[in-house]
Amino acid sequence: MIKRDQLIRFINETIGKEVLEFAHYRDEMANGVQILGGEDVDRVTLGVSLNEDFLKEAVNNGSNFCIFHHGFDVRTYKSRIPTYAQKRLKLIFQKNLTIMGLHFALDVHPEIGNNAVIIRDLGAQRRDPFFEDVGYTADFATAQDVHSLSRRCSELFEHDIFAVFSGPRQVKTIAVVSGAGKPYPEHIAEMEEKGVELFISGETTESVPNKMKESGINYFVCGHYATEVFGVQELGKRIKSHFKENLEVEFLDIPNPI
């Protein structure tokens, strides 16, 4: 068992003041504690998105401290609290849960963020900030076959890859933006300026594949949820390494095909 505030301090130190300040400036979503629960913590549960199924399972597993990439979205329509939010709030307050969201911070972090970890796990070297500083460009030491990279991404993300093979067969420079990551014209222009040969993201829209095809850039769409499991998992590893047997740490997977 540890104290709640001790865990919060460690998480803030791990993310770092600079990243948290950047997230506060750039992001309207949560990047820190949203709701304070019990003062003693035996088990912390981490996941991609806050929802009722996640909260129920976390409580059943004995957790009272939950960390999310997508935390509690408190935005309402005309101050009306919708049914789904009421269900979630009821669980949170009945079970005295601490809720922490780290949205932007767990995308942009240069070591444990989604994009940095994806680049590392693909065997590339992180280079420059990209996509309004949300993602990164990266280079492979030697050029990689783009079809082989597609198979590796399918394994890494455990998700079907929607691939547009419209660039070079041998790829050295990539860009990665986890989550939605739908490129607008300014982002495609940035890819062209930075020599990006493959863009990896989570979601797309109807017009984007043809834009990428006509731009001559390979394009992998790998799933919003699937590309955002990495940051919270890496944070969980850091928490477990620090607190060891004093704290149980669990990543809870509530799969989402989107």
Automatic annotation (TrEMBL):
Residues noted as binding a divalent metal cation in the record, renumbered to the chain: H69, H70, D107, H224, E228
Pfam families: DUF34_NIF3
Keywords, alphabetical: Metal-binding
Cellular component annotations (GO), alphabetically ordered: cytoplasm
Keyword Cell cycle listed: no
GO molecular function, one term: metal ion binding
PANTHER family the UniProt entry points to: GTP CYCLOHYDROLASE 1 TYPE 2 HOMOLOG (PTHR13799:SF14), NGG1 INTERACTING FACTOR 3 (PTHR13799)
Family to which this protein belongs: Belongs to the GTP cyclohydrolase I type 2/NIF3 family.
Name of the protein this chain belongs to: Nif3-like dinuclear metal center hexameric protein
UniProt organism field: Candidatus Chisholmbacteria bacterium RIFCSPLOWO2_01_FULL_49_14
Lineage: Bacteria, Candidatus Chisholmiibacteriota
